[in-house]
Amino acid sequence: MPELPEVETVRRGLEPVLVGARIERLVLRRKNLRFAFPDRFAERVTGQQVKSLSRRAKYLIAELGSGEALIMHLGMTGRFIIDAPDASAHEPGVFYADAGRHLIHDHVVFELGSAGRITYNDVRRFGFMDMAPVADLFQSKHFAGMGIEPLGNELSGETLAALFAGKAAPLKAALLDQRLIAGLGNIYVCEALFRAGLNPELPAGVIATKTGRPRPKAHELAGIIRDVLTEAIAAGGSTLRDFAHTDGSLGYFQHAFKVYDRESEDCVTPGCGSKVDRIVQSGRSTFFCPSCQPG
DNA sequence: AAGAACTCCTGTTGGC
DNA sequence: TGCCAACAGGAGTTCT
Q: Between A216-234 and A186-196, two packed helices, what is the crossing angle to 10 degrees?
């Protein structure tokens, strides 16, 4: 499942096909994903031209000619596949070996006429789609209360310190909390904490003073978060199990992981000599180097 | 009220 | 080889 860099990679793949195209038909192969589709979903989408495709955190936002936005989240295993206009119709139940995709999990199809077809596939169905008026999109339920955009101007040592000051929750949990910073997931939090030399179990408040001012680590961490995400986007995201680009190609940032999914392997820091450790925090794996990230 | 645990769902993997 | 528990990139809801 995709974190911010993977969602951005998907956005860049969809944009040239989707923007400017008209959704001639919306095929819903079931009545829900994680949640029910919005009321009269097909009706509200059919015939609409897509004005733009943007991203906020891990959400994709397609602005429609009607003034409504189509809001899409990929959950853990959601993916989009683009087919040329002349591609034959998919047969549900068939397995696509090349794309690693079960066709039985093709749930939503956007028919774009001469622009082709975009299919949403989601094995675990943790993804969802919704609609809201563009005018007050960021006041709508998915975005109201959402944290700062990690690649936006708001992310700085000052803001991180203000957000984390006094927090007893571990750094790992605070960085994953979408109400504080929106878009980070398990991979990039592990990688960022390693680069910052911060132990994931330390209370989040350690990067701030009692008055909420940034300690040096706050500035460092803010810069590292930006760097890790930027590098991952440049690499086309990370492909572990399910993630693929809209054309079926794969990301390669996973080769740049320093700790994620490297339990018991040697720490990459020259001369360190320690092994990457794995612990469980809030039910999720955390990977870190006990020497480079001392508690 | 904060923080942790549980939940949704399916598929893959690793240990016995 | 088969079986089964553990685990997977998210995040809303429910507990303590």
A: 130
The residues that bridge with A103 in the sheet, in sequence order, are none
Is A58 in the active site?
yes
Whether the per-residue pLDDT at A92 is higher than 70: the answer is no
How far apart, in whole angstroms, are the C-alpha atoms of residue A66 and residue A89? 28
What are the φ and ψ backbone dihedral angles of A292, each rounded to 5 degrees?
-80, -20
pLDDT band at A90 (very low <50, low <70, confident <90, very high): low
Domains in chain A, ordered, with CATH?
4-139 (3.20.190.10), 157-288 (1.10.8.50)
Q: Note if A284 is an active site residue.
A: yes
Find and list the nucleotides of strand B having atoms within 7 Å of a protein beta carbon. 2-12
Q: What is the pLDDT of residues A144-186, one digit of tens each?
A: 999 999 999 999 999 999 999 999 999 999 999 999 999 999 9
With b for 16 or more beta-carbon neighbours within 10 A and e for fewer, the A8-42 pattern comes to bbbbebbbebbeebbbeebebeeeebeeebbeebe
Q: Is the C-beta atom of A178 closer than 7 angstroms to strand C?
A: yes
pLDDT tens digits, A32-80: 999 999 999 999 999 999 999 999 999 999 999 999 999 999 999 999 9
The CA-based angle A262-A268-A272, given to 5 degrees, is: 115
Predicted pLDDT of residue A284: 93
DSSP letter (8 states) at residue A65 = T
